[in-house]
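Sequence dictates fold. Next comes a concrete instance:
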Amino acid sequence: MAMQSKVEPYLLFEERNRIAEELHDRICPHLFGITYAVHSAEHEWDEMTSSQHLALLRDIQEAAAEATRELRRTIYDLSVSDHGDASWLGGVESLLASQAKLSGVRIRFRPPAPDRRLSVHHQKALYRIIAEAAANAIRHGECSAIDIKLTLRPCSATLRISDNGRGFDCAAVQQDEASGFGLRNMKSLAAALGGSLQIDSEAGSGTRIVARLPLTDVREDKN
């Protein structure tokens, strides 16, 4: 009984963290897209035509609907143990398509071959790194294009993300507790799986991110 009383708070803490991560991964990126679109409209509304107003409002409505659908999927997934074979790459593509439409940024995503599978932990880490990097490139980098490529090999996964934004001083940003949080979070996600994440950027030259994660044979990994 004493052991159980010690273990239960830890299990509850882990479960709360898991739920928080699910909500962060699936809902926050869509909400960011909506916020960005509204912010842009606030500054450009007077220069837009009536048809552009209508198109933007429809894009925002669709993003809100997608956020609602993701919330429902999250609630469902948290209530059952078998998540099925739903494609996480489809979720990445859906997220990036929504971000591109709302921000006006061209986002190119080159996924790996569809016959390769990753563990849930690797899926979540890669999804969060992609979402964080894309949001940073749009919000802080003020880029017009983002290129994302994920390559899977028997023993490794390599994620490359580059943008043509304004870039930044890596050392200065990472020392800043507020602005460097996203970068540290991406590095922590890679490190938690025994991998690494390298960020190369300087003012006026865009940003390049390379994440490398070690894998066992991905054919043996199970969702």
Notes: The longest strand covers residues 145-153. The two ends are 33 Å apart (CA to CA).
